[in-house]
UniProtKB/TrEMBL annotation:
This is 2-hydroxy-3-oxopropionate reductase. Residues 4-163 form the 6-phosphogluconate dehydrogenase NADP-binding domain. It comes from the Bacteria. Belongs to the HIBADH-related family. Residues 166-285 form the 3-hydroxyisobutyrate dehydrogenase-like NAD-binding domain. It comes from Streptomyces hyderabadensis. Keywords: NAD, Oxidoreductase. SUPFAM superfamilies: 6-phosphogluconate dehydrogenase C-terminal domain-like, NAD(P)-binding Rossmann-fold domains.
Length: 292
């Protein structure tokens, strides 16, 4: 029989991901802060819990998908948290994108409670979550990875154990660096092409067929063309991730000269009130710099 699942955090990613588990036959009990997301889970065949403690009490596997390190710490620790209320032997799979150190510390604290932990952040965006084709970068022990693999296969397509606890987060930090720089490059090209009077749609189509092509260009093309910046992936979250990769790189002495500039542009969007927009809104930052 399939393990019983508790799912904490039913946002843009957590809702469709947990629904994919339900479709795969898993019994899912969820908890999140918004009542309408709990109603959505019930409508999809899951069970809405009134608290984290209630959600995790009978669970064999607990999945967390919340914004950042402070939220992971808030839901993991303390008398009402996951570690205090989970069964001994339960497997906690944290799929949030957080600092590698938070994952390492969580694994250590959980071990004392008999709870096994994997960090398993994802890439592929909302579309990847809905279609269950996410890339899942995992940190932790081989045996726990093997135990989690069938469940992760209901959520994603590329599922790789990257190393010990925290390694999944390190790889995700690199992912976020590449994505931000790629969006920035596309945004600069878009402004350049438009100012040059070239048909933008035609240009992006042909660029996407060559070496300049990318998943970013494929997925964000329509956002650029329509100036549609509904998230998707919020600038606020990418700001968090640029902070994670900047700190982690500094700790190991890796230089991120271009990443540092893009991190500043992401930060500038936030201070101008655009933190709630999709990260394709880096186009706005380039337009402002270009007087467009
Ligand atoms: P979101 O803000 O849409 O959802 C977060 C959810 O966490 C919300 O439903 C909220 O209720 C819940 N939550 C927060 N604090 C909680 C608490 N104390 N107890 C219970 N629930 C709590 O965010 P999202 O876009 O789904 O992103 C989630 C994580 O996935 C982030 O770490 C993000 O960086 C990462 N991620 C997002 C995307 C994307 O495209 N959106 C892609 C890959 C990775």
């Amino acid at each position: 029989t399939l393990p019983k699942v508790a799912w904490i955090g039913l946002g843009i990613m957590g809702s469709p991901m947990s629904e994919n588990l339900i479709k795969a036959g898993y019994q899912v009990t969820g908890f999140t802060l918004e009542q309408e997301k709990l109603d959505r889970l019930s409508a999809a065949g899951g069970t809405a819990a009134g608290s984290i403690a209630e959600a995790v009490r009978d669970a064999d596997v607990i999945v967390t998908m919340v914004p950042a390190s402070p939220q992971v710490e808030a839901i993991a620790y303390g008398p009402d948290g996951i570690l205090e209320n989970a069964k001994s032997g339960a497997l906690l799979i944290d799929m949030s994108s957080i600092t590698p150190q938070t994952s390492v510390d969580l694994a250590k604290a959980a071990k004392d409670k008999g709870v096994r932990v994997l960090d398993a952040p994802v890439s592929g965006g909302e579309a990847g979550a809905i279609e269950a084709v996410l890339s899942i970068m995992v940190g932790g022990e081989q045996a726990d990875f093997d135990a989690a693999k069938p469940l992760l296969e209901a959520l994603g397509k590329t599922i790789v154990l990257c190393g010990p606890h925290g390694s999944g987060q390190t790889v995700k930090a690199a992912n976020q660096l590449i994505v931000a720089v790629n969006i920035q490059a596309c945004a600069e090209a878009v402004v350049f092409l438009e100012k040059s009077g070239v048909d933008l749609k035609a240009a992006l189509d042909v660029l996407n067929g060559g070496l300049a092509g990318s998943t970013v260009l494929t997925r964000k093309k329509d956002n650029f063309l329509a100036r549609d910046f509904k998230p998707g992936f919020r600038i606020d979250l990418h700001h968090k991730d640029m902070g994670i990769v900047t700190d982690a790189a500094r700790n190991v002495g890796a230089a991120l000269p271009v990443g540092a500039v893009v991190a500043q542009l992401v930060a500038s969007l936030r201070t101008q009130g655009d933190g709630g927009l999709d990260h394709s809104a880096l186009l706005r930052a380039v337009e402002r710099l270009s007087g467009a």
